[in-house]
Specification:
This protein has 422 residues and is an alpha/beta fold. Strand 3 (80-84), helix 4 and strand 4 (104-107) form a beta-alpha-beta unit. Strands 1, 2, 3, 4, 5, 6, 7 and 8 form an eight-stranded mixed beta sheet that branches. Helix 9 packs antiparallel against helix 11, helix 10 (275-290) packs antiparallel against helix 11 and helix 11 (304-322) runs antiparallel to helix 13 (334-349). It contains 15 helices and eight strands.
Length: 422
């Protein structure tokens, strides 16, 4: 079967033009009011300019590659990007034509894509090679949370060091942990007006009326109604959820949607798979299918309607992963409230739009992979796990730092006296 791999084709004139137009394009495409790189973080990043680097970031949305592009430009270097194969098809292929010219290459998510791995190793073997990857392996939809990391990131790092050492004895490869935190633009009053307006449209669509409910109560009421409608649409027997707490019902809806998508795509799950792993497996099947290289298990008679339905079910599962009531109640920041709005709108209207916001890039000092290399050579599984533990630790520190950028927009726990959660 013909390979669908798309290599990078870095074009300097195109990149220079993009550099000049970046502020305008980032506002038009992503509604970004700017990217903040604190001076202390910029100094830390300047240390990696002339080094081999595996640049890691959280991945709450599809904007982080653009943020990483800005970071590279800010410190006077260029990054390569490993991007899902399906992204190259966006906008009738226009997105692919753009991103490959700034150093992106395709990878079939979740599959042993030899062309992609060969390209990644080649980049990391170069004296100043820099590759951007996302340990979460998927867009999480949550800025103040991290989903479980994929060990493939550490494996790519070790392969890159192997390739570098084969060319240059004593070569080093660094891990650069970073975190992107978004902060909604505007005053507290203007943000509240925007949220009230958006939530009001959603309530009208669902024929709900605010009454005397607090803002948090209204959000939770919309979430409950959408959950009830989804339970009915998914065919979940009412007898099996009566008396169950909200968390159980959210989980049941997530897994039912994902299992139905799996039945369409003929994807098999193990009994221990959580919702995140199921989403990853389904995304692999969809990505390969859209790249024209379906998995051997994928049915040959799938219709466009079948594929759309599978994607819709995965989106439904996403809705009930992002909308965690306890998280919202404990810290109802503008950003968390807007994330729920995004989720509601995507579920109800099939689309949503970014609200104006600013991106803050937080970093911790880069660290060398060589410290973990002897353990990897002795026991690959232990070596990979040891490196992943360090990556997870660094990213969680940045996560906590990012949380402090936001403040609650309304008082935490202000949901009324009769609401029971979980």
């Amino acid at each position: 079967m013909k390979s669908s791999f798309i290599p990078p084709s870095f074009e300097l004139p195109f990149v220079l033009g993009l550099d000049l137009s970046f502020p305008i394009l980032s506002k038009l495409l992503f509604n970004l009011d700017g990217i903040e790189l604190p001076r202390e973080d910029e100094r830390v990043l300047s240390e990696i300019k002339d080094k081999r680097v595996l640049y890691l970031s959280n991945h709450p949305s599809d904007v982080e590659p653009a943020v990483a592009y800005y970071v590279a430009n800010s410190i006077g270097t260029r990054f390569n990007f490993m991007a899902s194969r399906s992204i190259f098809n966006w906008g009738f292929g226009l997105v692919g034509e753009v991103i490959k010219r700034v150093g992106a290459f395709s990878v079939l998510s979740g599959s042993p894509d030899r062309d992609a791995l060969k390209t990644a190793k080649g980049i990391l073997a170069s004296p100043k090679g820099k590759l951007v990857m996302y340990p979460e392996g998927m867009m999480s939809g949550e800025n103040d949370n991290l989903v479980s990391f994929m060990p493939g990131v550490a494996q790519v790092g070790f392969w890159g060091l192997d390739a570098a050492l084969s060319k240059e004895p004593g070569a080093e490869l660094y891990i650069q942990p970073t975190f992107v935190k978004y902060k909604i633009s505007g005053s507290r009053e203007s943000i509240l007006r925007e949220i009230e307006s958006s939530l009001g449209r959603i309530e009208k669509k669902l024929r709900l009326y605010p009454g005397g409910r607090t803002l948090l109560r209204r959000f939770l009421t919309v979430g409950r109604v959408l959950l009830e409608e989804t339970e009915f649409e998914l065919g979940i027997p009412k007898s099996e959820i009566d008396g169950k707490d909200f968390d159980y019902r959210l989980g049941r809806a997530r897994h039912t949607a994902l299992n139905l998508a799996a039945s369409i795509l003929n994807v098999s799950f193990s009994d221990s798979d959580n919702a995140i792993q199921k989403i990853r497996d389904l995304f692999t099947a969809i990505d390969c299918l859209e790249a024209g290289m379906p998995l051997p298990s994928t049915p040959t008679n799938l219709t466009p309607q079948n594929i759309r339905r599978a994607k819709q079910l995965v989106d439904t599962a996403y809705t009930f992963i992002i909308t965690k009531p306890k998280n919202l109640i404990q810290w109802p920041s503008a950003e968390r409230l807007i994330e729920w709005i995004y989720s509601f709108e995507k579920h109800i209207y099939g689309k949503t739009e970014f609200r104006a916001r600013k991106a803050y890039v937080l970093v911790s000092p880069a660290f060398p992979i060589s410290k973990y290399y002897p353990n990897y050579l002795n026991n690959k599984k232990e070596g990979i796990q040891s490196l992943m533990n360090r990556i997870q630790e660094e990213m969680e520190i940045l996560l906590e730092r990012g949380k402090r950028i936001s403040e609650p927009l309304v008082p935490p726990y202000s949901v009324g006296l009769d609401l029971q959660i979980g």
